[in-house]
Amino acid sequence: MRKEIQVKITYKKGIHTRVAAMIVQKCQDLMRKYQCKLFIKRDRDNSVIPGNSMLALVSMKIVEGETIHVFSDSDHTSEAVDEFSRFLGGAFLLEQCNLDEIDNIIQNNTLASEKVFDSIVNGLIVVDHNNVISVFNKAAERITGIGAKEALGKEANDIIDTSKLYEVLKTGREQIAFKQKIGNSTIVTNRTPIIADGKIIGAVATFQDISELENLSSELRSVQDLQQRFQHILENVDDAICMLDKYGTITYVNPAYERIMKIQQEEVVNKNIGEISPAGIRMQVLKEKTPQFGRIIRKGNGTEIIANVSPIIIDGEMNGVVSVSKEITEIKRLAEKIEELSAKTKYLQEELSKKHEINKSFDIIVGKSGVLLEALAVASKASETDATVLIRGESGTGKELVAKGIHYASNRKNKPFIRVNCSAIPHNLLESELFGYEKGAFTGAVKQKLGKFELADEGTIFLDEIGDMDKEMQAKLLRVLQERELERVGGTKTIPISVRVIAATNRNLEEMVEQGAFRNDLYYRLNVIPVMLPPLRQRKGDIPIIVEHFIEKICSKYGMQKKRIGKEVLSYMEAYGWPGNVRELENVIERILTLSREEIITVRDLPAYIGVDKEEKSFRETAVAVKEEDDEIPTLEEVEKALLALALKKHKSFHSAGKALGITHKTVAAKARKYNLI
Ligand SMILES: Nc1ncnc2c1ncn2[C@@H]1O[C@H](COP(=O)(O)OP(=O)(O)OP(=O)(O)O)[C@@H](O)[C@H]1O
Ligand SMILES: [Mg+2]
């Protein structure tokens, strides 16, 4: 019969690690000596373990006073059982044992538990009661990206700042299935306290990386979202859409399909196309796997549609068919609308280009404003004819430039352009200047001289400042213009002339006609095509490009490096009235460019009178034009300063300025000093 011996454990601390190692060592000796296996049964619950299993023995947690049974696997080894039971009942003195071997057993078993921890796929972190990490397995390393060497012996929160093990240590309560972020990973973790003898001696966290799961679920969400959007689009488009699977079964039709085909979806969905439309295009595409575009079909119900049908091919495999159709009546209506609109657009474009068709010869005239372009368009049109042109405009607006533009745009361009300044030539000389004279016509006429009209023959004569011509000369000019022939002064023969006449003036001819200073008939003879050049103040938008143009022109004229102009300077220039128009602007720029040494022109370089307008304007704006709806209200001081400046400008003396403002001249003087106005 198998021998079993009951043993009472008398050792005070029960069977803990070191004692277990001693037992295992003894057991191994006996098993070798007696060639048998020895077992321990715990009486408390009849559980049986091999006597040489260190981990099993420790985990049995046998305490002092507990009874166990010892037995072997054969009937012939009662001596082994005797010896083993004696050992177990003893006092476990260390000296009785081979210390090296005990250390080895403990070491091997520790290693074994480390191996166990490392082979777990979940992360495992164990802390002691001070929250100091004692176990940090391989999976924990992988998930957290932190090495065990770095983690062991450190406080959990120093290593993972989001760790909540300290809470578990404090409360003794477990935390199950908590989601938490560690670096870029999302983990789900269980945290449990380790309790021994009713005391919390540590805590353990096991966790799993669910980042991939999270990514997958967010991908799933976006796919669902996308699907919903597509669904929404399909339901709301005006095109009839029908989808078939690879077997030809209709899987989907949208509401537009129901409307256009006058059919309910229940009547077609889940039916096969072979039943519904065996000879149709969808069937054809299903069989041939090639798309069909723009096919026009007349339906049985009279609807005419245009259809695009395509195979759905995924990874080279036929997966179904989709058809997109439109009612053709709608398309026809749209096509007509497009035709109508494009005809209108074409007409408007033609009109527009007619309006601004300006000959290249006018490119020398800088400006993009509507008023200028309109004038140039008229001049350009005039250049195509021989008609007389009367150019009007204030001084410096470019009348001479336009006259030249007309000449060089006309087919007289290779013939002379002769300018006569009617105001610069004394009245008594103007006639011979214009029409020439014969030898001996008057004292000093030692030889024949051709007049400007003859010099301009086949070309253009530009009668500048025509408003300054005296009335006698006006009559003579009128005759030449009417007859198209002239007689030289002192001559008798008439000379035919073919000249295009352009006249210009900055004077108010209509008023002169009324006052009798200019001949009515000559006025009408000259004013065949009037060209009105706008003053610069009416086209301030052109100032920046004109300034740029002159900077370039003048810098290259003087071989200077190109200078730049500050924004503020432009705003001053735009505020100024330019009575001398473009000529004045050109002079100002030339003056600035030659006087300033800086690379950038600033307000300080401007002549003082240009700034005045702007400053006065801003004073006026500040002083007078404060309205309720204004965003920014000036301060009282600003208004006072502006009012004072205005009064001083108007009244010149402190006394009268003070009278106007209702204060004493002393106050005016004091305030003027305060605001640096004097
Ligand atoms: N739009 C412009 N673009 C470029 N330069 C211009 C322009 N208008 C005028 N100018 C220049 O301004 C100056 C004056 O032009 P122009 O002599 O043609 O003026 P005007 O109208 O004949 O003046 P006035 O009545 O004083 O004779 C010229 O140097 C001319 O080149
Ligand atoms: Mg001129």
From TrEMBL:
Parts forming coiled coils: 324-351
Keyword ATP-binding: yes
GO terms for biological process, alphabetical: regulation of DNA-templated transcription
Occurrences of domain Sigma-54 factor interaction (ranges): 365-594
Domain PAS, chain residue ranges per copy: 114-169, 226-272
Protein keywords: Aromatic hydrocarbons catabolism, ATP-binding, Coiled coil, DNA-binding, Nucleotide-binding, Transcription, Transcription regulation
InterPro entries in UniProt: AAA+_ATPase, AAA_lid_NorR, Homeodomain-like_sf, HPr-like, HPr-like_sf, HTH_TyrR, P-loop_NTPase, PAS
Pfam families tied to this protein: AAA_lid_14 (PF25601), HTH_50 (PF18024), PAS (PF00989), PTS-HPr (PF00381), Sigma54_activat (PF00158)
Residues spanning the signal sequence: none
Matching SUPFAM superfamilies: Homeodomain-like, HPr-like, P-loop containing nucleoside triphosphate hydrolases, PYP-like sensor domain (PAS domain)
Stretches assigned to the HPr domain: 1-102
UniProt GO molecular function: ATP binding; DNA binding
Name of the featured protein: HTH-type transcriptional regulatory protein TyrR
Protein's organism: Geosporobacter ferrireducens
Organism classification: Bacteria, Bacillati, Bacillota, Clostridia, Peptostreptococcales
